[in-house]
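On clarity, I found the account of how folds are encoded harder to follow than it need be. An entry of this sort, consisting of the sequence and the corresponding backbone structure tokens, reads as follows:
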Amino acid sequence: MANDNKRKRNEKETKSDMIHLIDNLNRADDLKFNRRAFLKSAVGASITLGIATLPFSGLAFSNNKDHSNRVEIAKLADIPKDSAINFNYPTDDEPAILVHTKEGKLKAYNNKCTHLQCPVFYEKEESVLLCPCHRGFFSVDNGHPLAGPPQRELPLIELEVEAGTIYAVGRQIRHG
């Protein structure tokens, strides 16, 4: 008896009471917006974006060095061992110091003490960088503080020597 009621409930009595759930579906739209079409579009978009970025990838991997940050400091022959010169890098407002050590190494740092921004000088007798304001000492080899109130290292300026000329090519604020 209960099954007869269920069956009658699901049977169509007239055309007007039939719910037309699939009337808004179109076979052509169903084929147009299916999973396969979506995957084809996604793969096509990925390939297009990959091809569009190839010129930028080529520039990134090219061996052409960007010389925009490169600044000539001095001729190597003009700086004897165990001496220093001042220069400005990367802008004219930022003083820096280049030290040619007793061992013949070239080291360059920002010329402002990391404590209170006083200028730093090369102390030949002890081979250190000295901040005379509060007697702060920095290592010439790595720019780290050795004594006094400074707690942070001097920013390192990266150097290149090409054809007897010294160039500043970059700066590292934290260089460990």
The chain has two domains: 16-63, 71-172. The chain has four helices and ten strands.
